[in-house]
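During the no-cost extension, the postdoctoral fellow (Dr. R.K.) reprocessed legacy sequence entries with the updated structure-token encoder. One reprocessed record is reproduced below for audit purposes.
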Amino acid sequence: MYEAYVAFLDDPSQVPAERTNSHMGFAAGLREYGGIGLQVLGNCACIGPNPQSHYIDDQFENGFAEYDLHNADSQVQRASLYAGLGHLARLATPKP
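Re-encoded structure tokens follow.
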């Protein structure tokens, strides 16, 4: 996510690369019920599962949920969050 984020910037030296536990930096981890949460630089710019979403309601017991963006207001935030999800999907794909 960091690499995707800084690819959009003219001066990436201003972006801290370290992982953080605050709501203002880059982080990835497991959420409640086994969902994945990803976060990039910004005021809690993140993506995570929404088990009571408009399309999927209470489906964690079946192993899936709809993922929603939160405070991902800029193109760089959205693109880097989607890059993080794509990377995880690639890692989860079985090798032939």
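The chain is about 25% helix and 20% strand. The CA atoms of residues 6 and 12 lie 5 Å apart. The remaining legacy entries will be reprocessed before the final report is submitted.
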